[in-house]
Amino acid sequence: MTDRQQRIQALYEIALSIGPKESLEATADAALSGYLKKLNCSVGAIFQRLPHGADTDYPIVASIPASPGTNETLAAAREEFPAAGTTHREFVDRLPIAGETADGSHYYILELPEFGVLALGKRGGEIDRLTRSALAPLNEKLAEACRSQLIETQLRTERNRFEAVFDAIPEPVANTVVEDGVERVTRVNRPFEETFGHSEGAARGRPIGELVAPPADHPRADGDGNSGAGPTEIRRETADGVGEFLFRRVPVDADDGEYIHLYVDITAQKRRQQQFERYERLVENLPIGVYRTTPGPEGEFRLVNQGLVDILEGSSKTDLEKLSVTDIYVDPTERKQFSDQLLEQGSVEGVELQLQTVDGNPIWCEVSGIAVEEVGETVFELALQDITERKERQQQLAVLNRVLRHNLRNGLNVIRGNAALLADGVDGELQSHVTAIEDRIDSLEQLSQKAGTVRSLFDQGREVNSRCDLAELLSEVADDFAERHPEATLSVDEVDPVHVRADVRLKLAVLELLDNAVVHNDKPVPTVSISVSDSESKPGDGWVDVSITDNGPGIPEDERRAIETGEETPLQHGTGLGLWLVYWTVSLLGGDISIADVPSGTQIVLTLPRALETTRVQPPNADS
Amino acid sequence: MEVTYCSDPGKGLEPALRSTASSASVEGVLLLSTPDPAVRSPDFESVLAAVETPVFGGIFPELVYEGERRKQGALIVGLPSEPVVTTVPSLGDDAAAFGEALDASLPAAGYETAFVFVDAHASGIESFVDSLFRTYSVELNFLGGGAGTLEADDEPCLFTDEGVVGDAAVVAAIPESMGIGVKHGWQEVAGPFRVTEAEGSTLHTLDGESALSVYSDVVDDATGTTVNRENFFETAKSYPFGQTRMDGEQIVRDPFSVDAEGAIDCFGELPEGEFLTVLEGDPDSLVAATRTAAADAQAGVDSPAGIVCFDCISRVLYLESAFDRELAALTADELPAVGALTIGEIANDGTGHLDYYNKTAVVGAIESP
Q1: Which positions in chain B touch A122 (Cβ < 8 Å)?
Q2: Burial group, residue B163, by CB count within 10 angstroms (0-12, 13-18, 19+)
Q3: Which of B107, B277, B353 sits opposite A40 (nearest CB)?
Q4: Which of A5, A346, A496, B9 could staple B36 via S-S, CB 3.0–4.6 A?
């Protein structure tokens, strides 16, 4: 074989070793090995050219030996490299460089265009000039392979970054490619798998439209979301049902038809929004005013609902918000007092204020609210109820009560005095008329007293912070009954220890029922029994039934129906206040009353709430 | 260098080893042995372990001592410096990173020469040799070859600091310099042929045709003999393949068998795309090459103290009676000469690439202390 043939063959075989490998280092290393083997060289290295400020660095990408630090031939070659501050161009222009070391080794520095340089060393021989020249195209091929590997490495790095982001995105994401007009999935992330119920293995290669489909009852109503425009809201079937998504289709490489589908799950957000809208509608349509103001003597409206506009007879929410809060106070000083109270206490409940409408008409309102911190400032969140009618009714009741208790009693006293005088002056049949007058006076006085009792019932309101021992209460009731009705019989069943949420008003109600059972009884010996048991009409662990059964004729139908319906009419009413007193008492204590006919007579059941253990005990006769 | 030949290892090897190792001038022992039962016995591990100095070497088909082939016995070579012995295991493991087992700092620590022996029947020999070159380049001179037997019996064949091992390599670095000569004397007779299909060391096609067909045509032209599966080994020993490299002898690849499809198995890898030539030799050229190798080796040192040679066993098969001339060429100049007939050779001469050879004579001349 001639030298020329040998050279061509060696160069060809070197070319076989040049090509992209898994990394830049592997690419350079394989090629360097080929150069050294086929050229029978002893050492070699590939250097990458890297600009570094004003200088140019030549870091080693591959070398043989692997640790070239002590190799004299390579060290001599490196001496040729541009020193710091020297002109890099000058070095490049000198390439290829051939040199010889003191021990007779030869070294060669060859340009790798647009990548770096190749250094080869040979002991005991040289690489001839023809061969060195013939290496130029191989060096270009090696440079190109290294450059490609660099680019590939960068692309791989970018790809790895992309994949890391892809996997880290907490929202469902799919990578698609359009092939033959069909957009198919190439990758999905774990949130996609979980949301739409398709594993990546099952999703890969399938049309995206099959995997992420509109619900059957909602086909394509929101479009296919593939317009490529901005984000669109779509509804899609999910593994758990149907979800709402903010969808965006982003082209990765539009030329290659690659896209990223991003589905931001807004199902919960949409539900919250719908809930908020419902709540907003609810607040808007409430017959009470709901609003926000700033604190202070004046105060600004920040937000008002239609209810407040209606109560204050404003024209619109906008107009109302232009007013100062103090404008709706009849007495502006009350505004300051209210503001101070709310700032101090943090919350208020049921504060009655005399306000005025936009046109200056006075109204009574009950205001509750809290002071909250928002974006660095304090605001009041308030609810206002128009209680003008209630206040007027209270006034009417107060007047009527006064009339009933004082004026009527005074009048009765005058009548009783005159009836007494009259009784002294008449006899016989006329005396019976005087007696009838006196009986009627007694009856009216009792009615007056009961009216007072009713008022006191309501004065205490619905707030009950005490508990009552039923056994103790019924024992006292039995004693009272024996004293008041010696002609009648009362039996009280044995009562297990049980406490109900009640105060002294309960005793009043029970005594009233016992009085009724005796007074309206037509039997020679009125008989009444009381028993206590777990409630039958409500959960027994929370409620107790106190049953009072008599042997009387029963309660008149009209009176009974009035109690059961809680309403009297001109044709449906009772004869007094007794049953109403019981009804109101039980009602105020949070209980129920029911009336039933039993074989022996009538049974009235008071269903009362059991008391919590922590509630304080109040003796049945605490205020008696 | 102190050399002891033990003709009956079963009787005399252990005391001879102890004796050499205990010599004041000996800091390490190179042990070359034929496949004697004594060195293949499990008990030999304990014999090696009892030696005071590091021992390394291998089992070879035959030995060379005092200008003669020795089909039995063992050679104990006492070295004046303590060698750094490295065992590289799992030579057949494709994923093994051999370079990690090698101490790259040896040249900087003053070591100049390394004996290298590999299990000749392990795969991955060339990968290991490549790792050696990548690690040391020409900073170390290498000399050695493939150990084992021609019967390919898979028995452990390397003496290392870890005992008698197989599927491995042993590298023993010494500070002494050594002149090295590498020659084979085979001449190109045909080619080049492009390797169009190959797998490792199995050659399927050359220039797109059956490897056997191409090879057979060449041999027919040269000898008038038709090569077939039956006479392949006998014929092929005279017509190895050659791999070209610039500025040096071709690297010989020794074909030894052919399968029914005409694929030829060789010692050493045959990369696809590269070119092969067919080589032929004659006793004169081979002996002359050996003489040159020996001269090159001696020229590499100022004052040679002895010769260590590793000559391919297949050269014996080819040269037959003419091998005596080769031995004479190896052991000229009255220098003590020891060596082994190996299955593949490893050497560089300190100038070029380190390779794994076939059918080649590698000679080392040790510098006088």
Answers
A1: 247, 351-352
A2: middle
A3: B353
A4: B9
> Per-residue DSSP letters for B193-246?
EEEEEEETTEEEEETTEEHHHHHHHHHHHHHSPPP-TTTHHHHHTTS-EEE--T
Residues B120 and B140 in one domain: yes
Q: A595-604: buried (b, 16+ CB within 10 Å) or exposed (e) per residue?
A: beeeeebbbb
Nearest CB among B99, B107, B246 relative to A66 is that of B99
pLDDT tens-place string over residues B94-118: 778 898 899 999 998 999 999 999 9
Search chain A and give the residue with CA nearest B275. Answer: A9
Domain termination site, one of B254, B279, B304: B279
CATH 3.30.450.20 fits domain A169-272: yes
A25 to chain B, closest Cα gap in Å: 14
Give the pLDDT confidence score for residue A228 in this predicted structure: 52
Scanning every residue of chain B, which has its alpha carbon at the shortest distance from the alpha carbon of A12?
B274
Q: Give contacts of B108 with chain A, Cβ < 8 Å.
A: 70
Please report, for chain A, the start and end positions of each structural domain, with discontinuous segments joined by +.
Answer: 3-152, 169-272, 286-386, 411-459, 461-617
Burial class (CB in 10 A: 0-12, 13-18, 19+), B2: middle
- Which residue from A minimizes the CA distance to B355? A37
Q: Determine the Cα–Cα distance for residues A222 and A218; give it in Å rounded to an integer.
A: 8
The distance of A127 to chain B (nearest Cα, Å) reads 8
Q: Which residue has the tokens 């406490």?
A: A499
* Contacts B189 to A, Cβ<8 Å: none
Residue closest to A480 by CA, chosen among A451, A512, A449 = A512
Question: Which of A469, A588, A540 minimizes the C-alpha distance to A477?
Answer: A469
CB atoms B134 and A64 under 8 Å: yes
The 3-state DSSP class for residue B2 equals: strand
Residue A66 sits at φ, ψ, to 5 deg, of -65, -35
How many distinct structural domains can be found in chain B? 2
| The CATH number of domain A286-386, selected from 3.90.650.10, 3.30.450.20, 3.40.1190.20, 3.40.50.720 | 3.30.450.20
Domain end position, chosen among B234, B257, B279: B279
CATH architecture entry for A461-617: 2-Layer Sandwich (3.30)
Are A37 and B273 a contacting pair at CB < 8 A? no
CA-CA distances (angstroms) from residue B185 to A40, A499, B251, B266? 18, 120, 11, 19
Give the per-residue pLDDT at A145.
94
How many percent of chain A have pLDDT more than 90?
53
- The span from the CA of B293 to the CA of B272, in Å, is 31
Higher-pLDDT residue of A231 and A365 is A365
All residues of chain A having their beta carbon less than 8 Å from the beta carbon of residue B248 are 40
Q: pLDDT, tens digit, for every residue of B170-191?
A: 999 999 999 999 999 999 999 8
Q: Which of B130, B244, B349 sits opposite A1 (nearest CB)?
A: B244
Is the confidence at residue A572, as pLDDT, over 70?
no
Specify the residue for token string 């102890």: B18
Tell me the nearest-neighbour CA distance from B28 into chain A, angstroms: 27
Q: Hey, is the C-beta of B277 within 8 angstroms of any chain A C-beta?
A: yes
Q: DSSP label at A218? A: S
Shortest Cα–Cα distance, A4 to chain B (Å): 10
What's the pLDDT tens digit per position in A511-520? 999 998 998 8
For domain A3-152, the CATH architecture is 2-Layer Sandwich (3.30)
Domain with B28, as residue range(s), is: 2-183+285-367
ipTM for the complex shown: 0.88
pLDDT tens-digit map of B1-41: 789 999 999 999 999 999 999 999 999 999 999 999 999 98
* B interface test, pick of A40, A43, A122, A126 with most B CB neighbours within 10 Å: A40
Among B132, B137, B180, pick the best mutation site for testing chain A contact (most A Cβ within 10 A). Answer: B137
